Amino acid sequence: MKILITGGAGFIGSHVVRLFVTKYPNYRIYNLDKLTYAGNLANLTDIEERENYTFLKGDIVDADFIEDIFSEYKFDAVIHLAAESHVDRSIADPLAFVQTNMIGTVNLLNTAKKHWADDLGKHLFYHISTDEVYGSLGEDGLFTEETPYDPRSPYSASKASSDHFVRAWYHTYGLPIKISNCSNNYGPNHFPEKLIPLAINNIKNEKPVPVYGKGENVRDWLYVLDHARAIDVIFHEGKVGDTYNIGGVNEWKNLDLIELLCDQMDEKLGREKGHSRSLITFVKDRAGHDLRYAIDSSKLMDELGWKPSVTFEEGLSKTVDWYLENTEWLENVTSGHYRDYYEEQYERR
Ligand code: NAD
C-alpha cells in the first residue's frame, strides 16, 4: 500500500509517519510537507534512510504539484494532516489558514477523486481535524461526534470548513473518507510557540511563563503518541464515512497544568520547590478565547478498543525529559537555523 501523509514534518505528522514507517515495513510512506516554520525534518532523522520512506517537499495549495505526485506515485490512500495550526497566528493572518486548510484540502480531495475514479472503493482519504470545530463548552458537557459545529477562531473555522468539504466529497462523489477530531496534543517535537513547550522552555531558562487571562480555560490533553496510535486504529479499522472523536479523558485548567509543570521541573532541575511557580505571569486574554473543550471519545474506545496509554503526569514527565535532553532541537527551532538549512537543501520541485 502506498500512503501519502501530508504535514509529516510537523508535530503530530512526524509521529504518525514514524509509526507507519516502522510498524508497516510493507507499506510505502510518502511524506508531503511544505516545511513551513512548523515543519522540521529533524523530527524524522531516525527514519529518513528507511527504504519504505520518501520525503516530498511541496505545497498542498499548488494543484499542479498535487496532480504531478498523484500521477507519479499512484497513492492508495491519504492521511491528511498538513495545516496551519496555531490559533494566535490565525488571528493575525487568517488568509494563510483559508489557503492551506481549505483550498489545500479541496485540492487533495479533487485530485484523489480524479485519480481513484475507476476503483474508488479501494481507496481512503483520512482527514485529521480538531475538537475546536465544536466551539466552546460551559462548565459541563462533552463534545460528541453529533455536537453541531460552532467554530470561533479563524483556525477552527478553517478546520470546520475542511471537515465539511471532506464530508461533501463522500456524499456527493462517493469518495471513501474518515475524519477524526482530536483534543490538544502534547509531547516531543512540539513547536515551542504552543503552551506546554513554550512553558518548558521558559521555565528552563528562568523566563516569565505567560498564562492567558486568569488561567481558567480548560483543555483536554492527549499524549501525541496516543494520537498517532488512534490514527493507526481508525485508518485500519474505522468505518468509512464515519467521524471519531479522540481525547485523553484528561481535562486541565491552564493554570493547574502550568503549576504541575513547574513542580515537575523544579524536581528534575534540582530547584527549590515552588521556585518555578514564581515565573508564572498572567497576560491579556486571547481574543475570543474559548472557555472549555472536553471530548467524549467513547465511540473510539468502545468500537475500536483504543485508549490512552499514559496518564497526564507520566506523559508530561516524558515530555519534559525529551525537551531537557534535546536542547539542540529546541535551539535550532527557536533560532530559525534549520529553516535556512532546508532552504539550501531542498529545491522546490
Ligand atoms: P504543525 O503546525 O506542527 O504541523 C503542520 C505541518 O503541515 C508542518 O510540517 C507544515 O510544514 C505543514 N504544512 C503547512 N502548510 C502546508 C502546505 N500548504 N502544504 C504542505 N504542508 C504544509 O501541526 P500539528 O499540531 O502537527 O497538527 C497536525 C494536524 O492535526 C493539523 O491538521 C491540526 O489541525 C490537527 N490537530 C492538531 C492538534 C494539536 O493539538 N496540535 C489537535 C487536533 C488536531
Automatic annotation (TrEMBL):
GO MF annotation: an example: dTDP-glucose 4,6-dehydratase activity
Enzyme Commission designation: 4.2.1.46
Superkingdom of this protein's organism: Bacteria
Annotated Gene3D superfamilies: NAD(P)-binding Rossmann-like Domain, UDP-galactose 4-epimerase, domain 1
InterPro entries xref list: dTDP_Gluc_deHydtase (IPR005888), NAD(P)-bd_dom (IPR016040), NAD(P)-bd_dom_sf (IPR036291)
Assigned keywords, A-Z: Lyase, NAD
Residue ranges of every copy of the NAD(P)-binding domain listed in the record: 4-319
NCBIfam families: dTDP_gluc_dehyt
Family from the record: Belongs to the NAD(P)-dependent epimerase/dehydratase family. dTDP-glucose dehydratase subfamily.
Name recorded for this polypeptide: dTDP-glucose 4,6-dehydratase
Organism from which the protein derives: Pontibacter aydingkolensis
